[in-house]
Amino acid sequence: MKYLLLLFSLLTSINIPACKCDTPTIKNSFESADFVFTVDIYDVNTTYKTGYWEVENSLAKARIEKVYKSSAPDFRSKEITLFGQQFNSCDIIFKEKGKFLIFANVEPDTTFFYSSFCYATQEISQLSESEFALLEQLKNNLAKEISTQNNFELSNEDLLTAPDKVLKQLMIENAQLSEQHRKQKIYIASLSALYLLTFIIFILFYKKKKSN
Questions:
Q1: Helix 129-161 to helix 163-211 angle, to the nearest 10 degrees?
Q2: Average pLDDT over the chain, rounded to an integer
Q3: Are residues 42 and 62 in contact, defined by beta-carbon separation less than 8 angstroms?
Q4: More confident position, 60 or 171
Q5: Which pLDDT band, with edges at 50, 70 and 90, does 141 fall under?
């Protein structure tokens, strides 16, 4: 028991290392995060503590104002809960209410969202017009990419689920080729007959001229 208490004492006295990552930008944060939206944080609770660690955690409730990116096509939530853990030095612990641009991922087990200092999460008041324009551009580019992927998937699905349609198309194309071949044969036969007739006329004319 003494050893367990000593172990817990040592662990709780260890300094949490600082978060290390490259300087975040709007573009690389948009590409890395699963969700991007602007929110209004209206309730903050930083008194939540885990059972074993005397570290401060945060639960912040927020209303979604605008979604720029969602990794879940069926995502329709109007409110989310943002979770931050002090033990994880990269987690952002929201301590103030206000409006933020959030780059986030979701914890599947709890469905809580979390953001990181490795993302360009910040207060909306700190964003410039050019950064808002970049967000719109990234959103539109992503929508075009998803649309292209969906069209490709639907085309493949048609090939797999509608073989009769494909077979009929092949039969039509084969019939068209056969018709082309038939016309070519008629043309060649007609041309050959014309040459033969011309040759016969020439022979008859030559014989007649020779006899005279």
A1: 70
A2: 79
A3: yes
A4: 60
A5: very high
For residue range 177-209, what is the model confidence (pLDDT) as tens digits? 766 777 777 778 777 778 788 878 877 777 777
Which residue has tokens 């014309």?
194
pLDDT of residue 158 exceeding 80, the answer is: no
Give residues with Cβ within 8 angstroms of 63, minimum separation 6. Answer: 39, 40, 42, 78, 79
For residue 16, the tally of other CB atoms under 10 A from its CB is 10
| Same-domain status, 182 and 98 | no
Residues 119 and 187 in one domain: no
Q: Which residues contact 62 (CB under 8 A, 6 or more apart)?
A: 39, 40, 41, 42, 79, 80, 81, 82, 100, 102
Residue 67: strand pairing partners: 37
Residue carrying the six token digits 């172990």: 7
83 shares its domain with 170: no
**In terms of DSSP H, where are the helices of the chain?**
2-13, 26-32, 129-161, 163-211
